[in-house]
From TrEMBL:
Name recorded for this polypeptide: Cell division coordinator CpoB
Residues in YbgF trimerisation domain copies: 31-102
Species for this entry: Shewanella electrodiphila
Placement of TPR repeats on the sequence: 158-191
Upper lineage: Bacteria, Pseudomonadati, Pseudomonadota, Gammaproteobacteria, Alteromonadales
Functional description taken from the UniProt entry: Mediates coordination of peptidoglycan synthesis and outer membrane constriction during cell division.
Length: 241
């Protein structure tokens, strides 16, 4: 019975790589010879399986590496798209102000006049152009201040306050800049400039030597605007403290 099992095992193993040899040739020789041949066959099979497992492990590592790269790229793309949306919103605000500008002409008895919508959009556009087109930053400060006073409930009010705060911040007038940024944070909770305003308040606190308050503002940004451009800037500022 043992002899038949040995012969069958050798026949199956040998058949995987070559044509089956005659039974009498495989079974010939002493028991030691047959056992040695069987051991060689088994060892060759184990080596083949070992090499196959190594190739499988290598493929699995490559899959894991590719998955990690893919996840990293997905995260980077997500951040780019988020920043792109913010830029589109800012451009849309400027485009809307230009597109909605209309002229209303009164009759000859009252003379020419502009309605409130035209005055609002035109005033905002003029202030923005002083910054973006003409680079007249000092003149832009009173332009935005006047706009905020004249149109406190404007749809552009949050952006106007942020522009004003940024101009004052760049000029080193931190107390007034703080007031403008704080207005955005407290009065316009849904503004896309709120996160940036919190970062600027943190920077002002830093410049005033109040590191504890600065950290409070930066941590608010990380909590309320996680994974945003504002959060990345807040994290950089925190790391530098």
């Amino acid at each position: 019975m043992k002899h038949a099992v040995l012969v069958a095992a050798m026949f199956v193993a040998a058949g995987a790589t070559a044509a089956p040899a005659p039974v009498q040739d495989i079974a010939s020789g002493s028991n030691d010879d047959r056992i040695s041949r069987l051991e060689r066959i088994i060892k060759a099979k184990q080596q083949t399986e070992f090499e196959a497992q190594q190739r499988l492990d290598a493929l699995q590592r490559e899959v894991l590496d590719l998955r990690g790269i893919n996840e990293q790229q997905d995260y980077q793309i997500s951040q780019m798209l988020q920043r792109q949306r913010q830029l589109y919103e800012e451009i849309a605000n400027l485009s809307a102000s230009a597109a909605s500008t209309t002229v209303t002409v009164a009759d000859s008895s009252t003379g020419s006049s502009s309605n409130s919508t035209l005055g609002e959009t035109a005033s905002y556009e003029q202030a923005v152009n002083l910054v973006l087109k003409e680079r007249k930053y000092d003149e832009a400060i009173p332009a935005f201040s006047d706009f905020i006073k004249q149109y406190p409930d404007s749809t552009y009010a949050a952006n106007a306050n942020y522009w004003l705060g940024q101009l004052l911040f760049n000029k080193g007038t931190f107390a007034e800049a703080k007031q403008a940024f704080d207005t955005v944070v407290t009065k316009y909770p849904n503004s896309n400039k709120r996160g940036d305003s919190l970062v600027k308040l943190g920077m002002i606190a830093e410049k005033e030597g109040d590191s504890a308050t600065a950290k409070t503002f930066y941590n608010r940004v990380l909590k309320e605007y996680a994974n945003s451009a504002s959060a990345r800037l807040a994290q950089q500022q925190l790391s530098a403290l």
